[in-house]
Amino acid sequence: MQEHPHLHKRGRQKGWLPAILLSGAVHGVLFLGLFTVFQWQTRAEFVYAELWAPEDVSGGNDPTGVAERTEPPAPTPEPIPEETPPEEPQPEETPPEETPPEEAARLEETLARLEEERKAEAERLAEEARRAEEAKRLEEARLAEEARKAEEARAQEEARLAEEARKAEEAARAEEERLARERAEAERIAREAEAERIEMERRRLEAEEARLREERLAQERLAEEKRKADEARLAEEARKAEEARLAEEAKKAEEARKAEEARKAEEARKAEEARKAEEARKKAEAAERRRIAREIRNQELARLSAKVDPNSNRSGTTRGDPRNVRQSLTGAAAAQWQSRVIACIRPHISIEVKPNTKRGQFVAQYRVKLLPTGEQIGSPILERASGWSAYDQAVDRAIRRCNPFPKPDGRHEMPREVELSFDPVDDRQK
């Protein structure tokens, strides 16, 4: 993998920037140290002039005390030329005292020692500057080497990642090819299995069709043979029967003629009797209908005019011939009678009721007109359809089969009409 020149240049720039910053910092420290040393040396001579005072030599020959008192002030970036040191007392104002020889020797020794220390400090600072320069150079070389190694490592890592990506892509492509081959093989096997199954099913169906065809042909042959035998037998029997019939017809022809004459005469008589009976029945039905209408009207008038004692337990009204007073069905007696009527009708309701049918979902209500004997007058009248026509028809047939209706007890007369309601849920529970 080749490196791009601009990328390499950028990496070198990133590696040199810290080195340049470090070099600038080291040079700044060296400059500040040198400036501080020179400023301290300049002011040391000024402090040395103050040693002549008694309070300034209280430390004796202790160089430590002198060093402490001659500690340089904090360095400033640039000296201010306008500032002047505070004025010291002039020798002219105060005449100097004569310095003893021992004290002068100590001062000279101190000055010599301070000069040596200054030189040692300058050498030390020069050595530190040299070492800092060497360290900077080494640091720059180290940073450059690290940058080179980092660039090489990056290039190697990129090459490794590229190789891994290539291998992964090759592996994925190989896996896809393997899966495609497996899918193709599986599809081929499935197609072959499906084709084999279809072929076996076709052969089975052909064999089944051949077997059924053979059975059908055998049955047809047997049926044809039986038909021919039956035809021959029936033909012989028909011939013999025809001969016997012709002989019997010839014998019965006369008898039939005579019987026909007698039948016609009897039919004429019965027809006349039936006509007279029909006329009588129609007259009776008309009279009965007029009587029922009259009784219904009288019953309605009696119901409207009757007054029931609220303190009495009796219910119903008296009606009919005064010589034979009977009560109409009301209250509990009517409920009991209707229960008997429904018990007579319900066993005749023949229909399959679904298990999920709810009470009140299908309710059929019929009105039936009755004779005093309990026989039905005409057909049951459907007052309210249930919405299930099959159930309505089943109830209608059941009502017709319960004829006559059960009679009430001896104290009550047969109602002229009654309304009955039927629910298929009750029929399911019978």
Can you describe this structure in just a few lines?
With 430 residues, this protein is mainly alpha-helical. It is 67% helix and 6% strand. Strands 4-3-5 form a three-stranded antiparallel beta sheet. The protein has a two-stranded antiparallel sheet with strand order 1-2.
Question: What's the SSE blueprint?
Answer:
Elements: H1 5-49, H2 63-69, H3 101-305, E1 318-319, E2 326-327, H4 331-345, E3 364-370, E4 376-384, H5 389-401, E5 417-422, H6 424-428
Helix pairs in contact: 1-3
Percentage of β-strand residues:
5-15%
* N→C terminal distance: 97 Å
Number of helices: 6
Helix content: 55-70%
The main pleated sheet reads as: 3 strands, antiparallel
Sketch the topology as an H/E string, one letter per element.
Answer: HHHEEHEEHEH
Question: What's the total count of β strands?
Answer: 5
Sequence of strands across the biggest β-sheet: 4-3-5
pLDDT < 50 stretches: 5-9, 40-72, 79-83, 307-326
Question: Pairing-aware structural class of the strands and helices?
Answer: mainly alpha
Mean pLDDT: 77
The Cα radius of gyration reads 72 Å
Identify the overall geometry.
elongated
